[in-house]
Give the backbone structure.
Amino acid sequence: MTAALRVAHPRPYAPDAEITIRGLRKTFAGSPVYEGFDLDVPKGAVVSVFGPNGCGKSTLINMVSGLMPHDGGQILFSGKTIAQTRLAYVFQNYREALFPWLRAIENIRYPLRLMGLPKHEQDRRIERLLATMEVRFDLSRYPYELSGGQQQTVSIMRALVVEPEVLFLDEPFSALDYEMTLAMRDRLQRVFMETGVTMMLVSHDLEEAIYMADRILLLTRRPTRIAAYLDFSAPRPRSAETLTDPAFVALKREALEIFQREVRA
Ligand SMILES: Nc1ncnc2c1ncn2[C@@H]1O[C@H](COP(=O)(O)OP(=O)(O)OP(=O)(O)O)[C@@H](O)[C@H]1O
Ligand SMILES: [Mg+2]
């Protein structure tokens, strides 16, 4: 409340925003990462976050998702507080993200148990998710019995099963091989098309950032500003053809130019 009163920001509130960030401030050891940072994440959009190493991509989604406190400013979810919003988070390091003592299916069920849903409702949600994700491996296995891609599929399912309004993903494919990455991108895209969940996706791969996104947030070096917030409106489902589409190629070139300019600056 105090922060809300203190920050007199000229930027109006966008009515279609799922996440509204105003005057965000974050300092590590006296050195600012974010200072007066404003951003709107449109409802039902996939926003990719791209920028140089250490510019604050993880810090941004960690603050927005409530995993990390911020030092000032406001973060609002469709005008609601974070506590009134259903959020889910997929960590980069899937090896540490799953509970090793629970079978894959019980990992997925875990948040539903926490929510106190009856067993039949838990099963219904899991069934529905399985159909979307086209899971072909045995979910009665333990995490250590699964490949990296299978484990990351389980952690993504555990995030999705709560039917979040907003899903945060921090470089979710970075530990997967290329084939698995392509498959996971497409699964995630299918989920997005079916549920319309708002996503903030950190990616260190510019091609992926654009391929997945409706909006691409290009960040500068610290103290971090928005270098550009680009639109990519290619129809979904996107596929390998998207990557050679002239609109994609042109946007990638533009984003790369901005990135290089910002990194050199
Ligand atoms: N807990 C912390 N204490 C001190 N400094 C931190 C802390 N967390 C992050 N930083 C610093 O803040 C900056 C942003 O870190 P962050 O992890 O958000 O960057 P990133 O863009 O996600 O980087 P990467 O591309 O390497 O994942 C970095 O300079 C980092 O060293
Ligand atoms: Mg990071």
